[in-house]
Write a structure and sequence with these properties.
Number of strands: 11
Oligomer: single chain
Distance between the termini: 71 Å
Largest sheet: 7 strands, mixed
Strand content: 15-25%
Helix content: 40-55%
Length: 435
């Protein structure tokens, strides 16, 4: 069993047909790989069993969440080096995948695989970590299933989110004047940008779909004098938001509801914000989502839809959500290309007036959140679980790299329910964003 790291490195390089870009340290303290590179630490043979019983991303995710697998050194550098080898991407070159399959068919690789079996130990599938969403039943995006998915991600403790997000309690892409700005300033600037794009002012009524912990409705009511309704499917978020609003003395101007956007029966609003919520809607429901928001706006009313986008695929039917995100982070979440989003908003009747791409801003935001989490690691693990903290660290760091490398983006789409007469109410110089 000596030199497990060397044996694993040899196997990996034979399968990949290329040098392994990181070092490996195994449970027997053996090490192998390029000196000075980040180190993939395999703390327990159980990590190998996870991969054998669930090859690919899900097996790796389970090993990471359980603590059987770790990274020493620069996390971002390690993920960047491993991105094309470990995390299957929709834009990964097909020839590379084909080469791996051919390699697995070679007799020497089959022999190496048998060696891996001997390294892995007892042939018993390890139990998945408790943080994993178990098998879901029934059709996607019913009211009940969406509420359960939102609860999995957001009902993990307000105190935990306070450590990660900081005082702003804003869980979406900030808007940075420069990389040297503070996260708090960048989040305040983002909230203000949304209010200006929506043309908010005294007496207007705002609906915030997916209001989180109430930061946007608080800013809009305090700074712009609006009356606001915020909806969320998270009980913990609603409780926290209501407390903040009461403490700010704005309970007469802001209402927080635990409600799905499909359940709103109010009179039309002057403005609607949907910030980081549409990713949960799903492609089968997106037309209904766009129609619902259109019907909830007065003629001349504005929608600000802030949404993560993926790169388009040659075969859109081939799109799938990666297993780590689906099982551990955002169950049932789906991303769409920006072109599809704009098209569906237009199909609902909206006039799309502006699209602002801010993906670099999200990379800066995520790196700040990772820094906050790492700074408060012990407390974060105590407030949730060590596994949950590991989920958040991995997904936020990997997402930061995805934004930086243009694998995904994020866009603010300003759309108007323009009246038949054609008067949009948007100023001639749109980017001034004055009411």
């Amino acid at each position: 069993m000596a030199d497990a790291a060397g044996r694993l490195t040899k196997l990996a390089e034979e399968v990949l047909g290329a040098p392994l870009p990181v070092r490996i340290r195994a449970w027997d303290r053996s090490e192998s790989g390029p000196p000075g590179a980040p180190t993939l630490v395999i703390r327990h043979r159980r990590a190998l069993r996870r991969l054998l019983f669930k090859p690919g991303e899900l097996g790796l995710a389970r090993a990471w969440v359980a603590g059987d697998l770790d990274i020493e050194g620069d996390l971002y550098e390690a993920l960047d080096r491993l991105a094309g080898l470990i995390w299957e991407r929709d834009d990964a070159p097909k020839p590379q995948r084909a080469a791996v399959l051919r390699a697995l068919a070679r007799p020497e690789i089959r022999a190496a695989a048998r060696e891996l079996l001997s390294l892995a130990g007892a042939p018993v599938p390890p139990t998945p970590p408790a943080e994993e969403v178990r098998r879901r039943r029934g059709p996607l995006h019913t009211l009940r299933r969406d509420k359960e998915a939102i609860s999995h991600h957001y009902d993990v403790g307000n105190d935990f989110y306070a450590l990660v997000l900081g005082p702003s309690m804003v869980y979406s892409c900030a808007y940075w004047e420069s990389p040297e700005a503070t996260l708090e300033d960048a989040q305040r600037d983002k909230l203000d940008l949304i209010c200006r794009k929506l043309g908010l002012r005294e007496g207007r009524r705002l609906l915030d779909v997916g209001c989180g912990w109430g930061s946007l409705v608080l800013h809009a009511a305090r700074e712009y004098g609006v009356r606001a309704v915020g909806i969320t499917l998270s009980e913990e978020q609603a409780t926290f938001a209501r407390k903040r609003i009461a403490e700010a003395g704005l309970a007469d101007r802001i209402e927080i509801r635990v409600q799905d956007y499909r359940e709103i029966k109010d009179e039309p609003f002057d403005a609607i914000s949907s910030i980081g919520m549409a990713e949960h809607v799903g492609r089968t429901q997106y037309a209904e989502y766009a129609d619902a928001l259109y019907s909830l706006l007065k003629p001349g009313g504005r929608l600000l839809n802030h949404q993560i986008a993926r790169r388009p695929l040659a075969d859109e039917e081939a799109y799938h959500v990666d297993e780590f995100i689906d099982r551990y982070v955002f169950p049932d979440g789906e991303l769409a290309p920006i072109g599809r989003t704009v098209g569906q908003l237009e199909d609902a009747g909206f006039e799309v007036r502006d699209v602002e791409a801010i993906r670099e801003h999200y990379a800066l935001t995520l790196r700040s959140w990772v820094t906050n989490l790492e700074r408060h690691w012990d407390e974060a693990a105590r407030l949730t679980s060590a596994g949950r903290a590991r989920v958040w660290r991995l997904y936020m760091a990997a997402s930061a790299l995805s934004f930086e490398r243009n694998r995904i983006g994020v866009n603010q789409v300003l759309a108007v329910r323009t009246p038949e007469g054609g008067t949009s109410g948007v100023s001639l110089r749109e980017r001034t964003w004055n009411g």
